[in-house]
Design goal:
The protein has 132 residues and is mainly beta. It has one domain. It is built from one helix and ten strands. Strands 1, 2, 3, 4, 5, 6, 7, 8, 9 and 10 form a ten-stranded mixed β-sheet that branches. Strand 8 and strand 9 form a beta hairpin.
Length: 132
């Protein structure tokens, strides 16, 4: 799934998925998954996001997120409990997110219509987003 333009919304970011109608497959809605996504989205609005750091598999609500505006656009700073952090730039070029310093590649994977998984280095974050 190719990601299109990313814009700030009431959640964190909006991502547009490009493709033809024949390529799109219906998204099955599981009430339990939707409830978990909703809870994570509400948590993120308060500044807390789920993350798996240093190659960990289990996602935990250990990271804090801050939003700031720069000349380049919206910057998301994800702070780790050990004092480390990642700065991500929301782009308008179709990639969705990039490392604000450009040092490492960012992989963005939509997990639902309301959430994405962002991997950079050995760290993974779950962020609310609108995938269209």
């Amino acid at each position: 799934m190719k990601l299109g333009a990313a814009l700030p919304v009431t959640g964190l970011i909006a991502l547009a998925a490009c493709g033809t109608a024949s390529e799109e497959q219906p998204v099955e809605s599981d009430p339990l998954i939707e409830a978990e996504v909703e809870a994570r989205s509400e948590l993120a609005e308060s500044g807390v996001v789920y993350c798996a750091l240093n190659g960990a598999v289990e996602m935990r609500s250990d990271c804090q997120i801050e939003r700031s505006q720069s000349d380049d656009g919206l910057v998301l700073t994800v702070r780790h409990p050990d004092g480390g952090f990642r700065r991500l730039l929301v782009t308008n070029d179709g990639s969705g997110l990039v490392a604000a310093d450009g040092a490492e590649a960012v992989t963005v994977t939509p997990t639902s219509e309301r959430e994405i998984e962002v991997a950079i280095g050995g760290d993974t974050y779950r962020l609310p987003a609108t995938v269209r």
